[in-house]
Write a structure and sequence with these properties.
The structure is a homodimer of 333-residue chains. The first copy, chain A, has 333 residues and is an alpha/beta fold. Helices cover 47% and strands 15% of the residues of chain A. The first copy, chain A, has helices at residues 6-13, 17-25, 32-45, 51-58, 80-93, 106-118, 136-142, 165-178, 194-209, 213-216, 227-238, 252-265, 278-283, 292-304, 328-331; strands at residues 63-67, 97-101, 124-128, 147-150, 160-163, 184-188, 220-222, 246-249, 270-274, 286-289, 317-320, 323-325. In chain A, strands 2-1-3-4-5-11 form a six-stranded parallel beta sheet, with helices on both faces. In chain A, strands 7-6-8-9-10-12 form a six-stranded mixed beta sheet, with helices on both faces. The longest helix of chain A is centred in the middle third of the chain and has 16 residues, at 194-209. Chain A is elongated and about 90 Å long. The interface between A and B is large, with 52 and 52 residues. β2 of chain A pairs antiparallel with β2 of chain B, so a sheet runs across the interface. The structure holds a DNA duplex (16 and 16 nucleotides).
Chain lengths: 333, 333
DNA sequence: TTGTAGGCGTTATCAC
DNA sequence: GTGATAACGCCTACAA
């Protein structure tokens, strides 16, 4: 009735526990015929090594913590779905699983991770949504808890994986320039948000490269990441004496707001969003897509690969290229 | 350097391991002054019971499996985000965590759950997206693996939680009838999908109740759950000799397709979707919202509450009421 | 090549 | 009230 143990297998195969263990962990040390007998017994009994016992013995849980956040009310879709699946899939190959936990804020997150880690429930943790002065990297570092981050601050004293945000908006601008646009606006987060700043930077440098920055410098608007705000900012843009003919938005949420205004006013304004959320497809919105599956694999590698990386002081960073998905919102103008 | 154990605490407090254990698990059996001494030592050393050891000892992992599926390409947003957070939050209160795993299909899911369960990594599993002849409930039942399902088949020989899908579309129809609509169409999944059938049923019975069914019976269209299909079906509806003035869609995806057609043709057609995905907000689409947080709590209760429920043959089901969110897509006509 | 012994950290049982 | 003993299932020396 209870799941079989090594003991049971050993008895069934007429050998000792250790031989069974050897068959599993050091097959070459066991005579072929004995091995086959043991393997037959394993098969027949449906034996599976008990992970908990393995963990206790090895002082390793093969579990990775991941904080699941409540969905942001304004968001059009988070990365959770895709990132979680990518991480789970990548972890599977390394025989690791994700353990989900919740937290009230970044400090609470560290507290919970620490508790989980000290309890032996997780070997390390994945963090994301890194802010400029994020308390988590230094705290985890000091607690000597292995972690990998999706995103970076700039002072990257830890393992991180990020997408090249600047390259994303740069691709958007290139695309719009190719289609003949000369005045291209940018809608983004308030300054100081690392991700937002990088996306703004890609827009700025690319315009500059084409000698279009002077004509667009006044078209750089920032604000809260909500649909309503995107709509409002779009109105402001359209009422400008020299309105833009295209907009690069830092998020699909802002871009969706722009589209709403465009449709209400029957205005002509090309729009490119960022994140390629499901909504982008529904709105026929061009958007910059993040290679989340690759991010997941890179994060697992970053966390599990160098087993001693915690002690080392060499940070391992990896930058992945996003991809522009062109749809009607930027192709019909 | 290593995390402290009971042994360390005992030494620090000048008692034996068992006394420490007693302080934690049976405080009343320990003299107050001894207890305080032990508690002080625990505090000072920052001791946390090792979960892995507890699991081994108790033959219980306090882990619940959850299959994370890749996002459906057509979907506008899955329930993963909200459901996962709800489950994690509810599980937290019961000192349980979620363990994520992947699988290729339902059969593979059962295989993986079985492996995880036999390995002692999970105590039970949450399943969702139940189909009419879903292989998972009977298989899990036979394997004696505790589980709770989000959704039901009709033959509910297991613990389930579901939202009242029929009540959702019924509310949508009531709303539209109140606003004066007489010909109300339904767009849904192909027949045979349990969820789709219930949503269709709510539409039908409510129309019937208002004596409107005869005028709308021909307005019942089914097909693949994609935006493109929603748009196509909407065109078919609009070209009908007696076109509907309103549509109830079984999903936001289909509803988004309808909206696309409506906007392209500048048609007048009220639309209500289902699921209240983030996209619904972006499109100003009225939609039926599922109380996912409540679902999460109910599922945890269903799984953890009756510790012996596996053996019992009395199924425990719970039906939760959805809520209609009214937006411009149905309010302006 | 195979078997024996001990311990990972916890807790329940049973003496004292 | 407190402490010794044993056991959960596994693995890694070590011995035979």
């Amino acid at each position: 009735m209870n799941p079989p143990t090594v003991e049971d297998v050993a008895r069934a195969a007429g050998v000792s526990r250790q031989t069974v263990s050897n068959v599993l962990n050091a097959p070459q040390r066991v005579r072929p015929e004995t091995r086959q007998r043991v393997e037959a017994a394993i098969e027949q009994l449906g034996y599976r090594p008990n992970r908990v016992a393995q963990s206790l013995r090895a002082a390793t849980s093969r579990m990775i913590g991941y904080r699941i956040e409540p969905m942001h009310p304004h968001a059009l879709g988070s990365m959770h779905d895709r990132l979680l699946h990518a991480l789970a899939e990548a972890g599977r190959a390394a025989d690791h699983h994700l353990l989900l936990f919740t937290a009230d804020d970044p400090d609470d997150e560290v507290t919970n991770v620490d508790a989980l880690h000290r309890a032996g429930a997780i070997d390390g943790v994945m963090i994301y949504g890194i802010q400029s002065d994020d308390p988590r990297p230094p705290a985890l570092r000091q607690l000597r808890i292995p972690f990998a981050a999706f995103g970076r601050t700039g002072a990257d004293a830890h393992a991180w994986v990020d997408i090249d945000n600047a390259a994303g908006t740069a691709a958007a601008v290139e695309h719009l320039v190719t289609r003949g646009h000369r005045r291209i606006a940018f809608l983004g987060y308030p300054e100081g948000v690392a991700v937002g700043d990088r996306r703004a930077e890609g827009w700025r440098t690319t315009l500059d490269k084409h000698g279009l920055l002077d004509g667009s410098r006044h078209l750089d608007l920032r604000g809260e990441d909500s649909l309503a705000n995107g709509a409002r900012l779009a109105e402001a843009l359209l009422e400008h004496p020299t309105p833009p003919t295209a907009v690069v938005a830092a998020t699909d949420t802002l871009a969706a707001g722009v589209l709403r205004t465009v449709r209400q006013r029957h205005a002509r304004l090309a729009v490119v969003g960022f994140d390629d959320t499901p909504t982008a497809g529904a709105l026929d919105l061009s958007s910059v897509r993040q290679p989340i599956e690759a991010v997941g694999h890179a994060m697992i590698r970053a966390l599990l690969g160098p087993a001693v990386s915690v002690a080392q002081d060499e940070p391992a960073g990896q930058l992945l290229a996003p991809e522009l998905i062109v749809r009607a919102s930027s192709a019909l103008h």
